[in-house]
Amino acid sequence: MHISVLISLLSCDNESVENYSNSPTLSPLQIPELFQENIINPVIPNDNPQTVEGVALGKKLFFDSVLSGNNTQACATCHMPENAFSDNLAFSLGAEGVSGIRNAMPLFNLAWNYNENFFWDGSVFSLEHQAFVPVTDSLEMKNSWENVVAKLQNDSEYPELFQQAFQTSIIDSALVVQAIAQFERTLISSNSKFDKYLLGETELTSEELEGFNVFMDEERGDCFHCHGSDKNPLWTDNDFHNNGLDETFIDLGLGAVSGDPADNGKFKTPSLRNLAFTAPYMHDGRFATIDEVINHYSEGLKNSSTIDPLMKKVAQGGVGLSETDKTNLKAFLLALTDYEFVTNADFLDL
Amino acid sequence: MKKIASILCLCLIVFSCHEDKDDNITNTSIVFNFSHNWDGEEVSSSNFNTIQYTNANGEQLSIEKLRYLISRITFTNLNGEAYVLEGYNLVDVTNNSGLTFSSSTEIPFDTYTVSFVFGFNNDDNYQNYTDLNSESWNVPEALGGGYHYMQLEGKFIDNASAEVGYAYHAIRAVDATEDELEFTDTFIEVDLGEFELVNNVVFNVEMNIAEWFKSPNTWDLNELNNALMPNHDAQVMMFQNGQNVFSLNSIEQ
Q1: What pTM was estimated for this model as a whole?
Q2: Does the domain spanning A193-340 belong to CATH 3.30.450.20?
Q3: What's the distance, CA B67 to chain centroid?
Q4: Which PROSITE patterns match (chain B) (predicted)?
């Protein structure tokens, strides 16, 4: 008797029914097989679950120049899909044509950045907070959040899209970055030739296989200590290292953030996936080609007080790879290229 | 009514006094704390990155990274029955993580010898651990695969007075010079001695980092500073020097 009354009351509560029917649809990340098998789960904040509507809104915002002060620049201007969500400049140009100070980082597999330190210098914690920064940076979008929110609020489409994604049409900056972060978490790259090799779907050439051996050999490339291995499909430790670029530092990197001189000259280890799309390389885009990068580690290391202990034979400039090893290593690195990633329609502004 | 109350009381007394085999099993916490010193001088991440230690060979050095793996924490009673705590622990001194390991494994109150494995034994070493893979803790397949036991890195002053990096990485020793890999076991079984488990307990375990460079092999960093993973003999020397690295500082119970 009491139960039936309770059911009747609940079923007559129009507001509850309406809220339920308007709830965004959960859309958990589709975790690739190699990721599932080898590494722990991605970081998804409890207060920002992936939803169909949130991802769609985030994608629209990512490609919309409304975020910039003069309406000329979107996130995608410097993070272009065809460049694995980077660009081909050493320093990206901001909305007003002013050059930035660091190379635009490619964007993929960001949900597996377990320490959640983002940017080359790790200055921001969490993907959501990362998205706050470019909007107001005077060298990037040069806008204010008040202005962004006002423009979005007065837009003919966005209030409804926020309603669908977050069950409120009242827009604020926190919801904007939540949506962008949801979209960015969907940018998963896992279909390189090497991935397919590990899944038994293709074979590698002898050069690619030998290049992998160079990569994993502590006496030659020794790349694996910072860039992971076949057991870690991220190809980065997401940590910070001084990889011997300079004897003195113009850019302190992590040291400027932590205030610890021992961190000077340390920058985030970038993933080695998709190098074919992400030139130029390093935090300042100083190397135009993969060959230049390999040559740096082979004979171009420069000593400094904070150089990583794993940078061997610094006095000789590096490990001195043979030309064959260099060629093979490059072949392997290019086998980490995910062509499907840069043409995935889900990630394009169609 | 009185009768019912009496029966209830009797039941309570009977049940509360009934001794079954579970009574002796502790639900109390078992905690291991890992701390570090250099011949008695406390070492933590705040002491890293400065050349301030001198090893047995007279080389001055710094520590920039220290991570190591502890597994199979085992309580063995006088009858030889062994209780192995679930899980393993990656101690990361650099990032101040894994310095405490707690277990909810139930162990009966008894007198035990306590031990653990530095690294992984051979059964454990060749499993797939997603958390360790995520830490890039793997050993290349060309060296047999499995996992690092320790990564100790820093700088030292070499014979030419130059500051040079070292990477003292411990793994299962392997001779990879022939087609067929030949292994020597180099995980270390550390015996912490005997104690009686009667309550919540905290074991304070110490690593004397200086011991890695000391005995029986006086470690010459000028000769052995990098690319030590493929160096079978260097790995065996690490194993030998590691025998006296760990000690039990105290037990809190």
Answers
A1: 0.91
A2: no
A3: 10
A4: PROKAR_LIPOPROTEIN (PS51257)
